[in-house]
Amino acid sequence: MEFNTNDTKYRRVLDRVAKLKRFYGQALRGLLAILITGAINYYLNEWSHPWFLWVVFGVVVLTILRAIRLFGATILFGKDWEEQKVRQFMEKDNF
Questions:
Q1: E strands, 1-95, where?
Q2: In what residue span(s) does the 2TM domain sit (predicted)?
Q3: Which of 4, 6, 28, 30 ranks highest by number of CB atoms within 10 Å?
């Protein structure tokens, strides 16, 4: 299947795929950071002071924020909202 590379829809799809790839890579790096710090924490004090949970908390919060930005931001201010506002401002005479 061939795609017209000048097509704006095709460019948007490529951008979306690149953002998904970056998100999954960041999630995997976060998981790796959790595993490494957990192993170090266990090696140093065998869970008597579970300080690696701060790393878990940070990685989880960042991953949730990135997921909301990637998947959930379109719920509030998606393409439909943008098009509606453009139409609204175009219809105003004094804008």
A1: none
A2: 13-91
A3: 30
Most distant CA pair in the chain, distance: 70
- How does DSSP classify residue 76? H
Q: Count how many domains the chain has.
A: 1
Residue 2 lies in a domain: no
CA pseudo-torsion sign 9, 15, 17, 19:
negative
20 located within any domain: yes
Residue span of the structural domain in which 67 resides: 8-91
Residue 70 lies in a domain: yes
Over 80: is that where the pLDDT of 70 sits?
yes
Q: Are 41 and 51 in contact (CB under 8 A)?
A: yes
Across the range 46-73, mean pLDDT stands at 91
Counting DSSP H helices and E strands in the chain, the numbers are 4, 0
Residue 7: φ, ψ to 5°: -70, 135
